[in-house]
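does this look right to u?? zinc ion version
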Amino acid sequence: MHAQGILARSVPRAAHMSLLAVTASVPRPLRLLTCGACGKIEAAFTVQKGVRGPQKLGWQGLRSFSLPLARPFEASRRDSLGLKRGLSSAPQAVLTAPTPKVGANPEMAKQQGYEVISEQFIDEYNSTAILYRHKKTGAEIMSVSNSDEKKVFGIVFRTPAQDSTGIPHILEHSVLCGSRKYPLKNPVGELLKSSLNTFLNAFTYPDRTCYPVASTNLKDFYNLVDVHLDAVFFPRCVNDVQIFQQEGWHYELNESSEDMTYKGVVFNEMKGVYSQPENIMGRFSQQASFPDNTYGVDSGGDPTVIPDLTFEQFQEFHQKFYHPSNARLWFYGDDDPNERLRVISAYLDSFEASQSAKESEVGIQKLFTEPKRVVEKYAAGEGGDTGKKHMVYISWVLCDEPLDEETELALGFLDHLMLGTPAAPLRKALMESGLGEALVGGGLDDDLRQPSFSIGMKGVAADKTVEVEELVIKTLNGLVDEGFTAEAVEASINTIEFSLRENNTGSFPRGLSLMLRSMGKWLYGGDPFEALRFAKPLEAFKERIANEGVKGVFSPLIKKFILDNTHRVTVELQPDTEKGVKDEAAEAERLAKVKASMTKEDLAELVRATEELRVRQETPDPPEALRVVPSLSLKDIPKDPINVPIAVGEINGATVLRHDIFTNDVLYTEVAFDMSTLRADLLPLVPLFCQSLLEMGTKDMDFVELSQLIGRKTGGISVFPYVSSVHGKKEALSYFMIRGKAMANQTADLFNLMKVVLKDVQFNDQQRFQQFVSQRKSGMESRVVGGGHGVAATRMDGMLNVAGWVNEQMGGLSYLNYLRSLEKRVEEDWPAVSQALEDIRSAVLGRKGVIVNLTADEKILTSAEPHVSNFLDAFPETSGDRTCTWNPVLHRVNEGLVIPTKVNYVGKAACLYDAGYEMDGSSYVIQKYIGNTWLWDRVRVSGGAYGGFCDFDMFSGVFSYLSYRDPNLLKTLDNYDGTVEFLKNLELDDEALTKAIIGTIGEMDSYQLPDAKGYSSMIRYMMGVTWEQRQQRREQILSTSVEDFRNFGSSLEYVRDSGVVVAVASADDIAAANEAKPGFLDVVKVL
Ligand SMILES: [Zn+2]
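got this back:
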């Protein structure tokens, strides 16, 4: 499954997930790609099991790179501080708060030209949902009303492609490049500068295109809705071939004598996609599985086919499919339902009905009578052992008739049982087989018209690919014969039920997650309400298991849908070191042929057109055009930071923080143990210590049993370290945290299991531990290549302050080096390693300095107290000798970290407090502004890097510049240094300043679910951040002046003159930098 998104800021996790897959744990590589026009940076994304939140890679995850474990619940250090990204709305403002609003006034709806198809109350989400038809055009509208303040709107068209020219994807980009009411180059980008939006994006699926927005601010919300509606129905691109050329493809020729090239945002984007083997593999598999319908082509666009697309085809596609008769619209939240219908009428009424809904129907792929095997090649690098770079991917299309609700639910459970946790048998069998490095394939995928199931491995030796396939079949046969244990089934049911009830979508809007789920039925003529319900089918399913037994339910499913299913496609992808060169040569030849066929006049015309397009791209929109983009004013902004209730108390000598927030019967807790007593040499072992606690097992239970017990009795448990600088202190703040969640009636089990994990787990499984080390080592190695900016940032922090040093030990280059030597130590002296793990336990687990954080409503909080007390009793009063203090930092020197790469990551940083800068809220506005303007223009647009950005850490005082996938090195550093003069000479009118301020506050007030609110509040408590400080900071932001920008420019002179540089780059580029500036970088070979 591949969806292209225009912005990679918020990744639609749910876009690729079924109702039940919320907890699926096979990493689902969501290939959400950035779109050059408005997008920032590609965000790879995986969904993990249990309480662990999504791991984002990319610029947003910058800081979290310094920590080895994903921060659960999406609360990264930066996000959790009210200073930078504060809290959000009223405590009770969650989905299930009481008294939902009713639907629109029926009379009014009728007058406006709508008829009600169905109206239902959805108990599960405490919402009234009404499905309307717009009578004139046939457009369908789902209007969901409840008390969720995070309002969501989306418009979705079925956009089946006939070929792989990427029309739907190019159109998705192009309609956002200006419209009738908003005739700008990039209205979305302009909106983002000053919007309070919490979500704004567009996605292309294999058969549909979605345009969603979400906001908590009513005015902002309707501004966003209008920009999207105008964009899809009245875009400029259909009459403006230059937009098509810019976003899609065109020939570029700067001088008649030069070689011609292809240019275009989507063209380049898809070239990037087609150079990632996992992406190609998924595409080959889908296309081979659906030869007879639209899934047999690539809606995103195959770079070798994209240049076949004509402007006329593009126009026709828009006219046909972007029509109300082919549209499904979705509203969700606490806004006025009458207003919704009124707003869309203004657009829908201007169209007549069309046949487009018929023409956009997705046909059914008849099932194969025999399995298929496909062997393909991908372009591999020269380095490493290409013999071990094969991939195998096995995929089944499950049916060619719609499944009933119950079977769908059962398949969801089966998926979780087979793959959902490290203890799940299919996943465990593959991982422990040693046949490959990692799993690929997402398990069950029910987003498309016909569901499929896929699984495979990468990093497989050439002669082992068949064995992977055989192992999958053998394991599945075993599961048919033996079934799953009752414990495993109970764990899966509890985990899935918990996640359905909790409905914790992190920072992804709940209303959008529901929309995407509902669309999976609605789009194919199914019941859009069905996906919103789960209580009854779940009960029925549990009853069926009770009656028919585990084997009776699941064994026939495995047999029918997988083992006996002949619609099976196996793709083997082989590395080919020559393919890259051959593909390039083929493209050059094609271009040369075209050029040879052109007359002199044609060529001159092409040179002129190339120049004309460039001039247009470089010419800014006139101020009057920018003014039409709706913007909020300062008076729309709440004056106060968002408040989270907190009561500080004490139990058994531990500090207890209670947050009385409505959580729909879930208790969230964190217990933070003081980590500052840990011997410095043990720090790099902490991430593995955390993993061992959850995946090693106790004296009485192996890790499978422990993991199932956690699944059966809780909503999940995770452990991770937390380290940060504190303003005004040299020492780092450091905690070892365990976090858990459970339904209120499982509180006793939750605390009991947390105790078991911390106290009873034994560090005695050498082989498993060695697996952890290898996995983490290879994970770190790919992180250096894929996210070198994070590694550079961590490295620079490690040179500038103690907290940075600690984080570098646990997640930076030092950590990677440690893991490399650890592999050997585990082999040669396991008892010492095992003892070191015990040493961490005894150093950290003491009651002194413990903070217990509890988030739930008052009743649950009170009833949790005795369990907290029991839990604390299990730990000694003090923990070891409390004498360790860390104070080292890395030697401060400019470094060039060498890796095999075509693109670099360049960082430069210094501590502004060292230069006398005083903390001030205006720095947020300024930092964001620099990123959106100077660095964007210099490092990205003209420099050609994928991203350039800066970051100021209020706590440590470190200001850092970073670039992402950057073709340059020294030139980028010059651009960083140029920030000083840019700011000093800045002219900024009131309007632009106001926009910058509002955008900053919008980011700060981003919406949080209750668990994230409680967590953020705890972090603020630990850091000593008071309400008064937050208020002061907010006032400083709101009163930021142009003078502040200029003064900040002066402060940045210190970074320019004394900053430290770390570049993660190719050997050639580092050598070139040292040639131009002898001795500039210390060269460190990393890979
Ligand atoms: Zn795109």
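The chain has four domains: 106-272+295-362+599-627, 372-576, 647-763+835-873, 895-1085. idk if thats expected tbh
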